[in-house]
Specification:
The structure is a homotrimer of 347-residue chains.
Chain A lengths: L8 E6 L8 E5 L2 E7 L5 E5 L13 E3 L2 E3 L6 E2 L5 E3 L17 E4 L2 E5 L23 E9 L3 H9 L3 H5 L7 H5 L3 E5 L4 E11 L3 H7 L5 E10 L3 E10 L14 E13 L2 E10 L6 H31 L13 H21 L1
Antiparallel strand pairs in A: 1-10, 2-3, 3-4, 5-6, 6-7, 7-8, 9-10, 11-17, 12-13, 13-14, 14-15, 15-16, 16-17
Helix pairs in contact in A: 1-6
């Protein structure tokens, strides 16, 4: 049984990472070379020459074409080989796979599975990341752990209290019960924790200027497999959205994670923090960037340890789950179902 | 076939290593967290939370309880979970294994197998290490080799001549024949080498002040699997114990090794040197500590190399054994028998 | 199916590498210890003591004998054990394998397979390396890649244009078609590329002093599995060998590679460059040594990458081959046939 669904969109990179330099990244175990054409279109090709498998990412761009760094086999943006050394005839089968890519919401999304099924309308949205009404900081940390451990981690924020104390964790996160909703049809999982009267962690007090206790909402919206949204709302105790749905007296932070398996045991951990306040304040941007990166690295450290534990474990180890795990267990079920669906199609 | 016997006592640590900080050590492949209660009792628990397997050693002590560093699952000294996040009810099955531990002769001994069979009376003794009539230096070196290679090494001291020349090895060690006795019932192996007229190696001449040639006795007493005792007696040539058994004119050094498998391919190599002379002489202590550690590290270097050789070897490689290996072969037989006994009990 | 033929001669070392110090090198997966006797004869023995497998290379020479560094088992130049500790009788079976070795053309050749089949007449020759009519520079670079990748690399020099541009590569190498001849009986492969009017790369312009365009011949002669010869001829455009076969107006460089598998996934990459001009010019020697080493390291970097690609690849990956690969494909066929022949003899 494979451990990831291939017929899904995954974030391959931030748009800013892809340019006129050849850029190598492995997605779902597939080595891929990315670049932009002279007109700026992103291209994704399998990262190995058809001839002797040399990585194309170790090669050179000639206009919009890649010239293999080993023997000079030359490819256009569709992966078709257009020149070979020592002869004029190019074999008709000389072609490397190309992958559908879409640039949206600051991300470059890639489709690894059957290209005929790559429906771009199905890419979930994170519009804040490319919205001038928000200020965004973002990054990516490599994780030496299977992506399922990151999904577990993000679906159960009670860990903030223990792993991220002093940053985003306070006692109320762990002690406040959650509500979980599962949309079986659209395959989205919602986990909410509304704290009415909570301590304000440094991450929010320093960025918003709020003093004293707060009402703090965490509304998770997970679109398996790749996109995780945390709608975070912070306001003074008692301040609620208005009846018309507007919410001018609260601070809103959209925390976005893209969870992309690199291999079965490693993950690209993309993170972004978009806020609707202090838009021009570079100090706040810098504070949130540094603090969120620290928080992500706390997770990375813990999950890298956990990967070693899980990898060394005999099969059939039985975990114990409680209420806080409802969302995480639903996520595991969805991910399993997506993989099984693909297996059935194949069979 | 497993490679170690589980229903046996093993040295987990020196007593001085275990305190109010959580202390992780793997014994027979089992990750274990150790600590002392507020009243000083040593505790050993399985080093992974029942919830998501996070290592408890990466957590915090709250009084005598461990609070998991990931989601706050809280355990008492018996391994029973007494608190979980987000709910009041603690699942009845929430408990991590605890291991019997006994502190004796400066060591903390642990029992990994069936707790019902943990008979503390069966722990072999090394009383000198906690006896005010002796001065002791000790340490532990990690060995990247299977424990059987260390057993082989210690059972055949002819290697002192070649591997430890200039420290404890002289030509007489390799050239003097040994006598071996095997107590099948109590499962103890005795190997003796009595040199009547031997060169005095630096290790003993500098610590005792003896000049000239010596009578040197090496009486090994191995209690498989873990405890190895070398009763070392040094005296001027011709000086023997008296008829009444007393031996006031000789120097006695009790060399103790505890051989504890960490994994199938690594070992905790505990070593201690207890002497009945120059008890208050810090210079002698420092000399013996540094010299014995050097000797142990010479073994570690050789055995780490040997592990790679053995690990790369095809199965069925046939070694050649001679007289000096009698004790080592008996040790292998006992170790094999202990494991087989456990397999039979299981079946 | 094994990946290398054992009943073949392989280069183990340069003669200069073997002396009165014990020298360890693994050939075809076999750890071997090399040394010279007091009269200068090279000796090759299996690098593990019959007793407990300690590497003899971690031991000491006593005259022409090796004394094991662990317990003192002592071996003569035939591998026969002549002394053991603690007893006078040496077991009759105590012996380590010895390997036939021949010193020729500056190399020490070794035979790993059945000694009865070690016909020294079959060692291919590279006479320039020990000929006073030539000046030679040479070295060995360890390659973390299977030897087949190095064979591929050397059989298809069109890669010079892309991987070694600025050193030995020019556009003409990749664009000039090759001719390939395969001697099925003697098992030699010839690949020739004669460029009539080519750019002179730095490697040749700086060493010969030639200015302007050149006629450049590359005549490969591969004696599988180990010896690869590149007869390189450089002359001003239009200058050809005379009718009598003499060629006084050209520069000749004999490039020699010995390709020796260390393990299934690593290779000893011996390289030598012999020239028939500027014999006494140390500056030219130094230039060619540094430049050829740089070129070899460019290959090492590329092939180390390629090894990782190939090792991670699922079986059955289909490469695409074109005309330039004719010689390389013939080489693969010969290597496979040599291995199959051995399998048949065994069966």
């Amino acid at each position: 049984m494979p451990t990831f669904a291939r017929n899904q969109w995954y974030v391959a990179a931030y748009g800013r990472e892809i340019g006129r330099e050849l850029f190598a990244r492995t997605i779902l175990g597939e080595p891929i070379v990315f670049y932009r054409t002279e007109t700026g279109e992103p291209v994704a090709l399998a990262d190995r020459c058809v001839h002797r498998r040399f990585p194309l990412s170790e090669s050179n761009l000639d206009g919009d074409r890649i010239v293999c760094g080993y023997h000079g086999f030359t490819y256009d943006t569709t992966g078709t080989c257009v020149a070979v050394p020592g002869q004029n005839r190019v074999p008709r089968t000389a072609r490397v796979p190309s992958y559908p890519v879409i640039e949206q919401d600051s991300f470059v999304w890639v489709w690894i599975g059957d290209p005929a099924r790559a429906d771009t309308a199905r890419i979930p949205r994170a519009p804040w990341l490319a919205d001038s009404g928000y200020a965004t900081v973002s990054g990516m940390e490599p994780l030496a752990a299977r992506y399922e451990l990151l999904v577990d981690n993000l679906m159960d924020l009670s860990h903030e209290t223990y792993l991220h104390g002093g940053y985003i964790g306070t006692p109320e996160v762990a002690s406040t019960p959650i509500t979980t909703e599962v949309d079986e049809e659209r395959e989205i999982i919602y986990v909410s924790r509304h704290m009415d009267d909570a301590e304000c962690p440094a991450f929010y007090s320093k960025s918003t200027g709020l003093e004293g206790r707060i009402t703090r909402w965490q509304d998770i919206e997970y679109h398996p497999p790749c996109l995780y949204l945390l709608h975070s709302r912070i306001a003074p105790v008692g301040v609620l959205p208005r009846e018309d749905g507007s919410d001018p007296d609260a601070f809103h932070v959209e925390v976005v994670y893209a969870i992309t398996p690199e291999t079965e045991h490693s993950t690209h951990d993309f993170w972004a923090v978009a806020r609707d306040f202090a838009l021009k304040d570079e100090g706040v941007s810098e504070f949130l960037r540094e603090n969120n990166r620290t928080v992500v690295l706390q997770d990375v450290t813990a999950l890298d340890i956990l990967e070693k534990v899980v990898a060394a474990e005999a099969d059939g180890y039985q975990e114990l789950s409680i209420n806080i795990d409802t969302g995480g267990l639903a996520a595991r079920r969805f991910l399993k179902r997506m993989i099984e669906r693909e297996q059935e199609v194949r069979a």
